[in-house]
């Protein structure tokens, strides 16, 4: 463990690049859900609070699939776990075809749930796999780097959705055609992955110390799972009503607000690259606490409705949000040894927070979408406390 650790090793490069591409794929799927949120309000004539059930369908699948995906991965390995995730992802996308024909919000929610079961499976497998592809001291950097491409997917999702779905589209045909194409791409990725070999990976040193204690007594893991719940709660709520904020507060068209949402995802991607670099000189838990503090300030400014100043703050939330998900994940998996895969399942289950907060924010947004942005402040306070107290939590 002496000397400067490598980012990864040459023997892991092919699988590292493929798994990193999967981060992009679920970034597209998650942010397209926020475009659907707004589109369904128009086409299916539902309220903001009811459209928030889109996020409940997406993120709720993580609570249902987290532990089964972890059990499947532990029994059948990383490769079959990734293939299962890709198959579920593609199946959910293809279910959009009959959902569009039925013009049914509940059918769309079922399709999104199946798709998100695939996303949950992929996340359960991908995070511990990326963490294991090299020295544990650089696992934070690897996960943040891979999550940067999740940010790229987040740029593509709303841009694609705004152009294909929101631009002069008052029906569900564009939704059907887009998800049919997505299902085809994911099916092709699954076929390619059949021919990729995953090298044997080993967990970093000190796992014997971790194995001496059960997961429930690993304070840094337990607190990471709680922090991840609040983190994705803030993410789900912020993203779900971004386009509504652009329309209701700023007077933008849905399409233009969607493009600004895509711009905010560019800031998220930049934030992850910047964060990955900063972690070489600043401890990840310290950077996490600072970024959480900045987002408390951003949310308060957004809620004030100060015109473009508040809208820029809304954009900047994603910049400071950038490192939170991957950093909380990697900090929670530190020094867990054989418990790593099981721990990943529980942290992934915390993503259900992203399904609970949007309907709650929607109840406020029905009356004042700006005031709804006070709620994520609670989440960022929890994340700040996790980052600030991490050294004490991680002591053996």
From TrEMBL:
<dbReference type="GO" id="GO:0022857">
    <property type="term" value="F:transmembrane transporter activity"/>
</dbReference>
<dbReference type="InterPro" id="IPR020846">
    <property type="entry name" value="MFS_dom"/>
</dbReference>
<feature type="domain" description="Major facilitator superfamily (MFS) profile">
    <location>
        <begin position="13"/>
        <end position="395"/>
    </location>
</feature>
<feature type="transmembrane region" description="Helical">
    <location>
        <begin position="145"/>
        <end position="166"/>
    </location>
</feature>
<keyword id="KW-1133">Transmembrane helix</keyword>
<feature type="transmembrane region" description="Helical">
    <location>
        <begin position="52"/>
        <end position="72"/>
    </location>
</feature>
<feature type="transmembrane region" description="Helical">
    <location>
        <begin position="287"/>
        <end position="306"/>
    </location>
</feature>
<feature type="transmembrane region" description="Helical">
    <location>
        <begin position="112"/>
        <end position="133"/>
    </location>
</feature>
<dbReference type="Pfam" id="PF07690">
    <property type="entry name" value="MFS_1"/>
</dbReference>
<dbReference type="InterPro" id="IPR050375">
    <property type="entry name" value="MFS_TsgA-like"/>
</dbReference>
<dbReference type="GO" id="GO:0005886">
    <property type="term" value="C:plasma membrane"/>
</dbReference>
<feature type="transmembrane region" description="Helical">
    <location>
        <begin position="12"/>
        <end position="32"/>
    </location>
</feature>
<feature type="transmembrane region" description="Helical">
    <location>
        <begin position="371"/>
        <end position="390"/>
    </location>
</feature>
<protein>
    <submittedName>
        <fullName>Sugar MFS transporter</fullName>
    </submittedName>
</protein>
<feature type="transmembrane region" description="Helical">
    <location>
        <begin position="81"/>
        <end position="100"/>
    </location>
</feature>
<dbReference type="InterPro" id="IPR036259">
    <property type="entry name" value="MFS_trans_sf"/>
</dbReference>
<keyword id="KW-0472">Membrane</keyword>
<feature type="transmembrane region" description="Helical">
    <location>
        <begin position="178"/>
        <end position="196"/>
    </location>
</feature>
<keyword id="KW-1003">Cell membrane</keyword>
<feature type="transmembrane region" description="Helical">
    <location>
        <begin position="312"/>
        <end position="333"/>
    </location>
</feature>
<feature type="transmembrane region" description="Helical">
    <location>
        <begin position="345"/>
        <end position="365"/>
    </location>
</feature>
<feature type="transmembrane region" description="Helical">
    <location>
        <begin position="221"/>
        <end position="242"/>
    </location>
</feature>
<keyword id="KW-0812">Transmembrane</keyword>
<dbReference type="InterPro" id="IPR011701">
    <property type="entry name" value="MFS"/>
</dbReference>
<feature type="transmembrane region" description="Helical">
    <location>
        <begin position="257"/>
        <end position="275"/>
    </location>
</feature>
């Amino acid at each position: 463990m002496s000397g400067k650790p490598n980012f990864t090793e040459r023997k892991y490069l092919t699988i590292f690049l493929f798994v990193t591409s999967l981060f992009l794929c679920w970034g597209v799927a998650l942010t397209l859900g926020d475009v659907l949120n707004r589109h369904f309000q128009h086409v299916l004539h539902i309220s903001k609070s009811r459209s928030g059930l889109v996020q409940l369908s997406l993120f709720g699948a993580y609570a249902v699939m987290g532990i089964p995906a972890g059990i499947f991965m532990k029994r059948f390995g990383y490769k079959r776990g990734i293939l299962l995730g890709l198959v579920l992802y593609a199946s959910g996308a293809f279910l959009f075809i009959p959902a569009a024909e039925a013009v049914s919000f509940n059918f769309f929610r079922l399709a999104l749930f199946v798709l998100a079961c695939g996303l949950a499976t992929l996340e359960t497998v991908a995070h511990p796999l990326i963490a294991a592809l090299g020295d544990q001291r650089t696992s934070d950097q690897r996960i943040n780097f891979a999550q940067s491409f999740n940010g790229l997917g987040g740029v593509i999702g709303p841009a694609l959705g705004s152009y294909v779905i929101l631009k002069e589209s008052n029906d569900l045909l564009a939704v059907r055609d887009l998800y049919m194409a997505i299902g085809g791409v994911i099916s092709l990725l699954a076929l390619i992955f059949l021919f990729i070999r995953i090298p044997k990976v080993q967990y970093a040193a000190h796992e014997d110390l971790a194995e001496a204690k059960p997961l429930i007594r690993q304070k840094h893991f337990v607190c990471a799972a709680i922090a991840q719940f609040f983190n994705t709660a803030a993410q789900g709520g912020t993203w779900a009503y971004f386009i509504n904020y652009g329309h209701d507060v700023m007077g933008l068209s849905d399409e233009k607000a969607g493009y600004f949402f895509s711009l905010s995802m560019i800031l998220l991607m930049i934030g992850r690259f910047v964060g990955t670099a900063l972690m070489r000189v600043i401890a990840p838990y310290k950077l996490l606490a600072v970024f959480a503090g900045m987002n408390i300030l951003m949310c308060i400014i957004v809620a004030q409705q100060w015109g473009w100043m508040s809208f820029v703050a809304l954009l900047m939330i994603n910049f400071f949000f950038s490192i939170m998900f991957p950093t909380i994940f990697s900090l929670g998996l530190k020094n867990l040894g054989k418990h790593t895969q099981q721990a990943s399942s529980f942290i992934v289950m915390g993503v259900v927070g992203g399904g609970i907060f949007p309907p709650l924010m929607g109840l406020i947004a029905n009356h004042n979408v700006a005031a709804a942005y006070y709620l994520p402040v609670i989440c960022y306070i929890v994340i700040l406390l996790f980052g600030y107290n991490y050294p004490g939590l991680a002591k053996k």
